[in-house]
Write a structure and sequence with these properties.
Mean pLDDT: 87
Number of helices: 9
Order of helices and strands: HHHHHHHHH
Low-confidence stretches: 229-242
Number of strands: 0
Radius of gyration: 19 Å
């Protein structure tokens, strides 16, 4: 099941990215397109048929895994800023772009690089599963989930509040609810990884991560499709009135 999830999500993200290309060529929503493309990179590198050849081209030392995890940090910078702007969460934007936000991003990225450097992972291994018993690999996995969880914790209250706002349009409430669930799932991943030190919960981690990515990808698309629908409807009414 988990082997099929990244494949299905990769197809979904590529389709969503393709839908955004025309607008991006006009200078609109380029950050959203970049987000879908970066999520696609992360998902592609979660597929053995893609990961192994790519990593082999990079020297066969699991550099592709490192790239995937650093890319995820960048994804959550973009997602965090887009959601903060959409919900007018100025405090969240200020935290992400401010001194503390930059320190968390740089600190977690350096921690990812440092733990990867120290870990003994000389041969390509999907998900570093062949080295799962190494303490440094466990710390590396944990470090790679801290920044996404940081952004998620910041946004859960705001997205939940937007989902519960009965005066908002239903489509916005649905999108906000999907974001809230997705961010809530991301925020518990570090705790699951800590639990994995004592009990094997890797399946739960995989399902949680992929489900969260799916929700974060689908939520903005709902609002985008809705806006396009109402824009076309308004244009039709204006044309008819003439």
């Amino acid at each position: 099941m988990t082997a099929l999830m990244p494949v299905a999500l990769l197809v979904l993200c590529l389709v969503l990215a393709a839908l955004r290309v025309p607008a991006a060529l006009k200078g609109q929503n380029r950050a959203t397109l970049a987000t879908f493309l970066l999520i696609s990179v992360v998902l592609a590198l979660a597929i053995p048929a893609i990961y192994l050849p790519v990593d082999d081209a990079l020297g066969g030392i699991n550099a592709a895994n490192l790239i995937s995890r650093l890319t995820l940090n960048v994804v959550f910078v973009l997602v965090g800023l887009r959601v903060a702007d959409a919900l007018a969460c100025r405090p969240v934007r200020e935290i992400i772009t401010g001194a503390w936000g930059r320190r968390v991003f740089i600190g977690t990225s350096l921690a990812i690089i440092a733990t990867f450097w120290v870990a003994d992972v000389p041969v390509s291994s999907m998900g570093l599963n062949a080295y799962a018993d190494q303490p440094w690999v466990e710390l590396y996995r944990l470090a790679s989930r801290i920044y996404p969880a940081f952004i998620a914790v910041l946004l859960v209250p705001w997205t939940y509040k937007a989902a519960m706002n009965r005066t908002a349009l239903p489509v916005l409430r649905v999108a906000s609810a999907l974001f809230a669930i997705g961010f809530a799932l991301v925020s518990i991943v570090p705790a699951l990884l800590l639990a994995d030190i004592w009990v094997n919960v890797q399946l739960a981690v995989d399902v949680t991560v992929y489900t969260a990515l799916a929700l974060v990808a689908v939520a903005p698309t709902i609002t985008w499709v809705s806006k396009r629908h109402y824009a076309k409807k308004e244009k039709t009414l204006i044309t008819a009135a003439r």
